Amino acid sequence: MPLHEALAILALTAYALYKQSVAHRVVGRTRFKLALIYCGVGLVAGGFQWPPSELAWMVLLGGLLLSAVTGVARGRWSRLWLDANGQPMARGTPLTIALFLLLIALKVGIGAWEAETHQAAAHGGFGEVLLLIGVMVALQAEIVWRRASKLAASPSAFVRA
Under a CB-based contact definition with an 8 Å cutoff, are residues 76 and 143 in contact? Predict the structure, then answer.
């Protein structure tokens, strides 16, 4: 992975960590905004290439499955509450942040293995990492939105922060 791509992933990771560590209002109509940005940049500007072999396809599909599982877990374990005005709020937890970092580390590690063993030619890289993050963020946003909708519908069942 070229230095400029590694720096871009580090910058996007830092931004994502910051966004997870601050409280934010859960808004349904914009919940997929960040996921669409990650996927769009990954597919258009990230240099995403179709896998050239069956093994490369398995690695890509495995990465997508891992992203989906991570996104669902992060959505389930994000902290939710109602603010003083009854609006649903969310914030990541140390666990959700650790899951995010683990996903990135695994993808980078798998990419390094692919490059070292020449298993997947040039299909992996910056675009694929952004696509995997986008899938994770989309599923997380949907789970958080569903949980927040239930929270707002029956606030007496939850403790207000």
Answer: yes
pLDDT tens digits for range 81-104? 999 888 999 999 999 999 999 988
Q: Where are the domains of the chain?
A: 3-157
As a residue count, the chain comes to 161
H or E element at residue 105: helix 94-117
Report the run of H or E that residue 80 belongs to, with start and end.
strand 79-82
Give residue 125's identity as a one-letter amino acid code.
G
Rounded to two decimals, the pTM is 0.83
State the Cα–Cα distance between residues 136 and 66, nearest whole angstrom: 8
What pLDDT, on a 0 to 100 scale, did the predictor assign at position 95? 95
Q: Which residues of 22-45 are buried (b: 16+ CB within 10 A; e: fewer)?
A: eeeebeeeebbebbeebbebbeee
Q: Nearest-5° angle of CA 122, CA 127, CA 128? A: 75
Residues 6+ apart with CB under 8 A from 29: none
